[in-house]
Design brief:
The complex is a heterodimer of chains A (about 140) and B (about 110). Chain A has one domain: Histidine kinase-like ATPase, C-terminal domain (Heat Shock Protein 90), CATH 3.30.565.10. Chain A contains 4 helices and 5 strands; from the N terminus they run E-H-H-E-E-H-H-E-E. Chain A is globular. Chain A starts with a strand and ends with a strand. Chain B is of the alpha/beta class. Helix content of chain B is about 45%, strand content about 25%. Chain B has 5 helices and 5 strands; from the N terminus they run E-E-H-E-H-E-H-H-E-H. Chain B has a 5-stranded mixed β-sheet with strand order 1-2-3-4-5. In chain B, strand 2, helix 1 and strand 3 form a beta-alpha-beta unit. Chain B is globular, with a radius of gyration of 13 Å. Classes of the chains: A alpha+beta (about 140), B alpha/beta (about 110). At the A-B interface, helix 1, helix 2 and helix 4 of A face helix 2, helix 3 and helix 4 of B.
Chain lengths: ~140, ~110
């Protein structure tokens, strides 16, 4: 049976508080000997998810709740806000683009979820008018 | 303060190197943008941004880098990056930044390819 660690963290929606969540994720990943690249990817996914919650949730309690579950093989992160939920156009980034730039492929905003999906092995989003939970898993690379 | 950041600028005759330290978010990004705009407005359109001491870049920081790329394009300038981690380089390629700016392993090669 694998050695499992669960950590719960609640951060306020203050500037840079996403770094506290990212640091917690990196400590847990390093505890299980994830490689340096995976640790950085986990940190970036946590940061992007926390920023999305802060920018778009309209949560009254202004808090982000994070659950980390690390085993010998993988790190699961579940990030929840109690905001108004997100819509399909928020998910694909089309609501966040702002003014068009010089190059259409250089979209300035709304790329957070794309980054998370590219860096993590599994990503799941559950949203309702009572809030949003983004869950993702990073599996440890096999040697 | 969780994020201690700094920006150093080294100007040469025909180019400038901007070195950032800290988490590249909206706060550091805005300072970086101001410094870059000052250089561009002053006629320096060959820039290198060294990100070796910047361990994390969020999507807001990336959007500010895109604005610098666009400002340089208006002046027919060039921007090269160096000192990126493998994850940062992968993210830059995913977001099409690598199509409009060079990515090099170190300052020497970034300057040589301006």
């Amino acid at each position: 049976m694998s050695d499992e660690h669960k950590v719960l963290l609640t951060i306020p929606m203050y500037p840079d508080m996403e770094l506290a969540a990212a640091k917690t994720g990196s400590v847990l990943a390093e505890l299980k000997d994830f490689n340096e690249e995976a640790v950085e990817e986990i940190q970036l996914a946590i940061i992007e998810t926390c920023i999305n919650a802060s920018e778009h949730s309209q949560s009254e309690d202004k808090e982000v709740h994070i659950q980390f579950l690390v085993t010998d093989d993988q790190l699961q992160v579940k990030i929840t806000d109690r905001g108004v939920g997100i819509t399909a156009d928020t998910l694909d980034g089309s609501r966040l683009l702002g003014t068009a730039g010089v190059h259409p492929d250089l979209r300035k905003r709304g790329r957070g979820l794309q980054i998370i999906k590219a860096l993590m092995d599994e990503v799941m989003i559950e949203s309702s008018p009572n809030g949003t939970t983004v869950s993702f898993t990073k599996k440890k690379a096999t040697e | 303060m969780l994020n201690k950041f700094d920006i150093q600028i080294r100007e040469a005759k025909e180019h400038a190197i901007i070195e950032t330290t800290g988490y590249l978010n909206d706060a550091l990004g805005e300072q970086l943008s101001e410094k870059a705009q000052e250089l561009i407005q002053g006629g320096c359109t060959q820039l290198v941004i060294n990100l070796e001491k910047t361990t994390l870049i969020n999507s807001i920081g990336i959007s500010i880098l895109i604005e610098i790329i666009e400002a340089l394009e208006e002046r027919e300038g060039t921007l090269n990056f160096c000192g990126l981690s493998s994850t940062q380089e992968r993210t830059f390629r995913m977001m099409a930044i690598a199509k409009y700016a060079g990515i090099f392993p170190d300052e020497e090669s970034a300057v040589a390819n301006l």
